[in-house]
Amino acid sequence: MSKIEEQTRHSLELADAVIPLIRLVDEVLHAYPDPYLLASRHAEQIVFKHTGKRVDPRFVWWHQFNTESSSSRSFTGWQHRGPPQKSLVLTELVVERFDDYFQDAVDELDLRGGFYWQGPHAAFYDERNEVRMLGSAVQQDLWALDFASLYRGEVERFWAAHEKSFRVLAKVNLLGEGRLALTCQRISQSDWRHLCAMVSETLSGVELPTLQKLRQDNDEPPLTVVRYVFGEGDRGCLFTFHAQGGRVLAYLPWHAEALRAFDSELEMVRWLVTRWQTPQALDSFIAQGHGNRHDAARQQLIKVHLKGIADSRSDEAALIALKLFERPLNGNFFTCIIEQALDEMRRNAQLMRDNTSLRKAMLSGYLSAFIGVFGGFVPLGWPISLMLLGAGVAKVALDIDEALNATDAQSRMSALRSAVLDSVFASFNLLDVTTQPSLGSVLRQAPPHEVGVELEVWQADSSATRLVEGEETNALVSGELGASGRLRGVRMTDDGKCWITLNGLTYRVRYSHELAVWLVVPVNNPYAFVPLRPVRLNAAGEWELLGPPRLLGGSPPAVEGMPSVPSPFWDTYTAIDDASSTRLAEQSLQRQKALLEKWPVAELPNGRAPDLDERGLDCVKVDGLPRYSYRYGHEYFNSLVEWYTSNESTVNDVMRTGRYQYGDEDSYINDLADSLGRLPKSNEVTLYRGGHRSRGTGGEFYRNGHLRVGDVLVNTDLTSFTENPYKVTEFACLPFAGAPGSLPGLFDDSSVVFELVAGRYRGATPISAFSIFWQEGESLMLPGNYLRIEGLEQVYGEHYRFIKVTLAQTGKPVSGPVYDLRTGLLFDVAAYRAQFRTPALAQRFFPA
């Protein structure tokens, strides 16, 4: 076997072992009862119930006021000015509930307070920035929800369903910390072998820690475990693992360097004393060691104990003092830490206010005192359960207050996942997976259309070759040709790429671990979001392309001038699947935020309120000029984008029909265009846009031949595209709850999907990080982008059909007709310009 084949085979085997653990991480984190994420989900549901919109709850504020005046224009009938008496983001309100006064005086909620898009710094609170929800109605929702009881139930369900998986990941984390400590020479090879044996009796120090091995325990571990308890509420800030011969490993789950070995207990104590004599290190130890960071008395007691050890007359005396706090573990170490994590989670859950506690306090007249002592859910500390998974505060890259009070649910979950995956990779000695192209598959989450596909029913299909047209390479590919196993017939090059010869042409392929099959992929982007192109070797040793089985119901009526094609890709994305859609949206948001992190966006300092422009919109002023895009912590804001995503039709009415509702739309559109111009562009992913006659865009002109391949379209309004194909199909049909096949609605001859292929456009600005509808994975195009029709086909499935229009951006044609992207009609630039009250704005998008 050649060296290249050996390396490729090893990479595939490594991915076989790592990917199941990554799936386990996603399963556990998705179900993990994080009160912040749970509250965020229910806050979103409350907004949807009252507004019909899936709004990110971080944009929705509850404000209470001391004064009010009546208003015939506002939803509540009242308006307010001046700073509110109290303000909470909706997610916080779900946990903390309304003030004690309003528990009885519900009728005053709508008078004294309201929901708004802006925080406590706004100049006014009325119909211009209100969220159309009544406090009295939300009060009923909160009583019906009973968040505290809901959370306690989530805790019990999580441990009942995922205790074994959590145990595996706690083992992975210990191995990951051990591998890092070995690399940094804080432990020896002998220590490493002992740790592996402690994790599983079948795991040696040189084998891959597969899921099967990690599920096994060792009833006779080579290390004896001791826990140190420095006060009531201590949650395991220090463990020691003792080997025969006196060698000791100190394990601090919360620490950036969690494992360190010593030749003796005395040497370990000497190291601890040195640390505890440093005030900063001592405070960090106390903060991580005690569950309730607000319990000053118990924290002080722990400090007294640690200081007493640190101030001992000698190392021998310090060791004697330390042993007073020893608590030997008689059972399995992992059983112990899991019980500890569960107990802490239950204790924290009991501190939340539930309906029963509120009712008792109201009946006894002690509600104010009750809320003062147990006010909502006070963050107690970074959960030990997350530390045991490898997601300590230091690794998640958030400071403690920011981590505990994070309101951006997506950033929080992304940071947790990244930290836990670091432990997984470290346990396999993959300290930098990004430098190994052949291991790229372990870094990505397989898209929904690559999961659960029954390839057994797919057959060799010569007509499927159209799916790989243009994907071949003209370069001469030399390398080793695999002779056996899954590498048989695959050519491997030194850079880790894999190739096959199909019908005399050379294609790049990658191995799908989800489907156990090779897929034809784009040469320069093997993980592009494209339909499946699976291949297999036939009996003659030749590669053949597979196609899906034909539909039993046959195909819809043919459309002249274009092919009609079934599509397993669109079979997946036309069906409602909220969980998968959310995962795609989270990936889009993460990608778009990564662009912004490298971009010079204005910063709003922590604790400072935004500035206001002359319209009262939030901004950050730089040299006296408003900058609407700004970063606050790990979150991004742009009030112009927020207003657009909540009032899209109002803004676009100007460009579609010349209708002005407020009078200052031209100024707003100009500022929005300026603001978008300062943000990064991106064309690295394929974008989609859906249309239907019910939304003013339809596929009829493509079906009847009015619009053909080669024609040029132009967008004449603020045009939204999405990275999330689940979302595009919602816009390509008539919404109908009773649609067959789990579809979001009814598809007909007006259904159309536009596809902007990755790398073939340049005018789209990603805006999801600023949008109140982050799930849409949205990018926005200003008017004036010319798009050439590159392909037309009718895509169909059992219960759907639509025209797919493939587009590529082009320059303004020198001559010939141009058609409106939205309507399909011939574009009349003079009539378009006449709709604007401000000629310069029309000239901006369509210069003379």
TrEMBL record:
Keyword Lipid metabolism: no
UniProt keywords, alphabetically: Membrane, Transmembrane, Transmembrane helix
Pfam family, one: ToxA_N
UniProt xrefs under InterPro entries: ToxA_N
Keyword Ribonucleoprotein included in the entry's annotation: no
Coiled coil segments of this chain: none
Domain of life according to the entry: Bacteria
Membrane spanning stretches: 361-382
Name of the protein in its database record: Dermonecrotic toxin N-terminal domain-containing protein
Record organism: Pseudomonas putida (strain GB-1)
Source lineage: Bacteria, Pseudomonadati, Pseudomonadota, Gammaproteobacteria, Pseudomonadales
